[in-house]
Design goal:
binds zinc ion; Dup_hybrid_motif; M23ase beta-sheet core domain-containing protein; M23ase_b-sheet_dom; 3-stranded antiparallel β-sheet; membrane; 15 strands; transmembrane
Length: about 290
């Protein structure tokens, strides 16, 4: 069947060098389709070009922003002090200063103990700049070293006579004094006397073991407690004894009551601190500051 004339389009191709023009007859329908395809392809190409252009410009903007940020970072690096820029350094610095401060305090406590005739302990410098080897100790080792010192210190302090067996004023100090029973005779007073009323509590000044609890001549009712470092405390003229020989006592325990038993002119507590069996001045042990 032959198509209708109106459905056919004629394309005329004219070549400059040839005299005769060529004519081509195509169904109009096909030309329409071709035009749609061409338009479609053109649209896709245009859209892709647009996208490529958009992405390219976006990229440029991003680059520009990156450059600006880098410039800002460079400026900040110059402005910020090195210590802040490196937090690890700062932490190490403050840890070192804490270690030095702890060491100083340990040495102070050590001096208190040494002045009381106690052994104390050797403080190995870990934080000081003077001892480079020790300063290189890993943190955990330095901390365990301090832990050991503090453990030692805690037990030393608990077992070292310290403070008052009762809080009151002293009526008599350690040393020579005139004999209260014979004014022409000088007598050595081996402890200090605390004022008190009959029945007032007497507290032991350090943890230890009771080695004597009973009557002891001039001391009357007397308690003696043994502590570490060859130290002993003695509490005399008691009206009542609250402990037994062999009993372990903790610093602050009530070991007896104030009285006036034995060689005594009035109700008071006689308190002695003995080192290696010899009386020493208990005033040294009343506070840490002397
Ligand atoms: Zn006395």
């Amino acid at each position: 069947m032959k198509p209708k004339t109106s459905d056919i389009s004629t394309i005329v191709i004219i070549n400059k060098n040839q005299q005769q023009a060529k004519s081509l007859q195509i169904k109009t329908k096909h030309i329409e389709r071709l035009r749609h395809y061409a338009l479609g392809v053109f649209a896709v190409v245009a859209a892709l070009s647009g996208l490529v252009f958009y992405l390219h410009s976006q990229n440029k903007e991003q680059e520009e922003r990156n450059k600006q940020l880098q410039a800002q970072i460079a400026k900040l690096k110059i402005a910020v002090p090195a210590a802040v820029a490196n937090p690890a350094n700062t932490q190490q610095g403050s840890a070192q200063s804490y270690i030095q401060s702890i060491e100083t305090k340990l040495k102070t406590i050590n001096d208190y103990l040494k002045r009381r005739g106690l052994k104390g302990f050797a403080v190995k410098s870990t934080g000081g700049s003077g001892n480079n080897e020790a300063a290189k100790l890993p943190d955990s080792e330095a901390y365990s070293l301090y832990d050991d010192y503090l453990k030692h210190l805690t037990s030393t302090i608990a077992f070292t006579p310290m403070g008052y067996p009762r809080i009151s004023s002293f009526t008599s100090f350690f040393g020579y004094r005139s004999d209260p029973f014979n004014s022409e005779h000088a007598e050595f007073h081996p402890g200090i006397d605390f004022q008190g009323r009959r029945g007032d509590e007497v507290k032991c000044t350090a943890s230890g073991k009771v080695v004597f609890a009973g009557w002891a001549g001039g001391y009357g009712n007397c308690v003696r407690i043994q502590h570490i470092n060859n130290l002993e405390t003695l509490y005399g003229h008691l009206s009542k004894i609250e402990v037994k020989v062999g009993q372990k006592v903790t610093v602050g325990d009530d070991i007896g009551k104030v009285g006036s038993t034995g060689h005594s002119t009035g109700t008071h507590l006689h308190y002695e601190v003995r080192k290696d069996g010899k009386p020493i001045n208990p005033v040294k042990f009343l506070t840490l500051n002397k």
